[in-house]
């Protein structure tokens, strides 16, 4: 089974970039990597996802290594409102038969 | 557009009872997924429904079941509740037939089993 690991916590200064790593060394095929974040007492919020290429949207950038064994979520200019738990999720399988491997989440604290 | 709504938001039950949780997806969304979140196990996938059919399920016992109605609203049921079922139950909807797309989560139902 796929295994997804993330650091437990990290701090970031407001206005600086936050780089969140995720290790998915058991990835082997067409598995998607998703990132969500969860602010206390709310449901998770989608950030970005990718398969092989790097992706960027208005919230963040996703860098996937060439061997796809790890990825990094980049919040380019962290704000206090980015303080949350960030989850890396790997989806293995096809549309009707897939498994989700959840990271335990990285608690990101943005400090002024 | 209204977001995903879940009812009730909080629920207290005792061991052995059963419970039904409800989820209304974003209008037009046909895929609904359910997740369990606990401090010890983190996020875990329960099942996904699409067009009233269960499309996939996670590794949970048969006490956990769900269904989806023709209007895409979904319910999940847990029978013979155990203390370990205390958790935040999250529902998420997705816009297209492909659940590869982003999912929109509701606020969750906090279930406490005494």
- The 3D shape of chain A can be described as globular
The backbone outline of chain B, from C-alpha atoms, is globular
Relative helix content of chain A: under 10%
Could you describe the largest sheet of chain A, including whether it forms a barrel? 6 strands, mixed
Measured distance between first and last alpha carbons of chain B? 37 Å
Q: Strand pairing plus helix content of chain B: what structural class?
A: mainly beta
Number of strands of chain A: 10
Give the overall average pLDDT of chain B: 94
Residue fraction in strands of chain B? over 45%
Structural class of chain A: mainly beta
Please tell me how large the radius of gyration of chain A is: 14 Å
Low-confidence stretches of chain A: none
- What is the mean pLDDT of chain A? 92
Rg of chain B, nearest Å: 13 Å
Task: Summarize it.
By secondary structure, chain A is mainly β. Chain A contains no helices and ten strands. Chain A has strands at residues 9-13, 18-23, 32-38, 45-50, 55-56, 61-64, 70-75, 84-94, 97-102, 106-111.
